[in-house]
Write a structure and sequence with these properties.
Strands 2-1-3-5-4 form a 5-stranded mixed sheet. It has 3 domains: about 5-335, no CATH class; about 340-375, no CATH class; about 380-505, no CATH class. It has helices spanning about 5-20, 30-40, 55-65, 70-90, 95-110, 110-115, 120-140, 145-160, 165-175, 190-210, 215-225, 230-240, 245-260, 270-280, 295-310, 320-335, 340-345, 350-355, 370-375, 380-390, 405-415, 455, 490-505, and strands at about 400, 420-425, 440-445, 460-470, 480-490. The protein is mostly helical. The chain starts with a helix and ends with a helix.
Amino acid sequence: MNKRTIVLLGFMVLKMVLQFVLISPEYDLHRDEYLYLDQGQHLAWGYVSVPPFTSWISAIIHALGNGVFWVKFFPALFGALTLLVVWKAIEALKGDLFALVLGAVCIVFSTLPRLNILYQPNSFDILCWTTLYFVLIKYFQEEKPKWLYWAAGVFAFGFLNKYNIGFAVIGLLPAFLLTKQRAIIADKKLYGAMILALLLISPNLIWQYQEGFPVIRHLRELAETQLVNVNRWGFLAEQLLFFTGALFVILLGWAALWFYLPFRKYRFMFWALPLTLAAFVYLRAKGYYAIGLYPVYIAFGSVYLATLLKTGKKRYLRPVIIALPILVFLPISMIAFPNKSPEYIFSHPRLYQKYGLLRWEDGKDHSLPQDFADMLGWRELATKVDTAFEGLAEPNLTLVLCDNYGQAGAINYYSKKGIHAVSFNADYVNWFSLEPKYVNLIRVKEQEAKHTEFAETSPYFEASIIADSITNPYAREKGTTIFVFEGAKVDVNKRIRQEIEEVQNTN
């Protein structure tokens, strides 16, 4: 094993370990993680909000025991593999050991650990963006058609993970046309690769067609409820925060694509950056959607810096350059990760507020960053639902119906009673089991919607109580209430079936 391999493995292990130490044990899993985990028990070629790839990983997690370690392992792994691809890109660009170490440091000490702590499609999305750019570098180096087929495969798996990778293509196509790399369009193998990509993603496209393209409805809802609050200048400002310590490396790498002779064959990447960002800005995308753009520019910048600092006294600047991303990361890590207790964040809000971390999707500031608040209260909810469930005379004939996917997924994950909660929200509307004839109902209601539930539902049951609620003051779900309705006077299954049909017809 040579020196480079040992250094690479050391960085990959460091990257993996960081993902586990940057989360305080006071936090539960994130709201979204529960949904993705439940998708693994309902395998399909598509879901309301995401393509199927994450569900395949969830199925593996279930097979491994469904523990928190494995939930966190896979995004950590994808982050480490992103580092590996950047390393290989630097090697392909003839970077020396300094360039390799600098690239690795820029990846490890960046925003990527923030994304890689959560089991969401984002980590694999960034890996796919980075790999797609790397494969194109290899194609223009060697001009071998195999790299076009690799690109097709990478795009396809990226697409089956998150449609966001389409923005990479949107940026690349005009970038090719603006440079000599437009010659790729004359390569017949390109069209064979495109057909391969289409074949690989076709099961999901067919599913979308059969289901009436739920992705369009999801995007419309996203635009109306979340993206409407996105400020375009704010989007651009956010880009400066993702790789703050490596920003000079990224900018140097981007600029070098224009004037540095060895990078001339990759000049399409010079245009890909502004064109892709322009597409994101036009559509009011969230800032983190663009993170996959930057790792490859770290590779270019690391190689170019290595040439600038290769000889003379400038070599003594190399340790300083390597230390800079680490020195910038350390203070940022104190506020960017859920490694402080909710009580501490609430008592020390100044820095969180200064960097906009307390601003939620509703455009308002709150006590905790939204992602952190989305990691609280779930165990409490599941425990209290278990207690309510256990107190029923016929618990096996009880339907647990929630207002949102986070509630349903959290109950399913943490419940000790084998509860399978459902909701009319997200994919859960397709996962109802109406086999038993329900006589009891446990209704979990969000705070905003809880006030009329007792009056509206209790007349249809013999007994009704408000069992409990989430009391964690820092949880986004604070105030979510558990209602218990026992002894149905009506056909619960029939009414649920009618509501399912209404929701599906509305969608």
